[in-house]
Predict the structure of DNA-3-methyladenine glycosylase I.
Amino acid sequence: MADYCDLAPGHPFHGPYHDQEYGFPVEDDDTLFERLVLEINQAGLSWLTVLKKRIAFQQAFEDFDVARIANYGDDEKQRLLADASIIRNRRKVEAVIHNANVVLALQQEHGSFQQWLEHYHPLPLADWTKVFKRTFRFTGPEIVNEFLMSTGYLPGAHRDDCPVQARILAHNPPWAR
């Protein structure tokens, strides 16, 4: 069976994500938040759908500026639910706004979202899932797994024989420490 390392290279959407982002360590809180938002929005849909809508998500959510999104009220929520260029799921939109507030609280308590992740690293997936479920909304096991793999906290984004894997290891992702 072919996997992402076989299918993504050369694809107009999957290729750049696979080659330049997926599995590389992420330290910037807004980028971490973007990955969480994209994974939440992927639930029940294909990753290709999310990647095709990524620019629209970036525009709709103001480049995933956590502080701005945390202040979204009913007007912004209605704007998002009316925006046909993104995924208009009320539970997902509400989770994004709620989770932005959670990230702000984590920044206050831990210094950053990234430092909060480091505080819990390393954990097995089942324990990560428990931490995410009690901290965030709309974060089931698959969302947590993909978020943590995509940001370098869990292994598995690439096969060992994938050329991208060596580049990721050169960046010393948390899972390899």
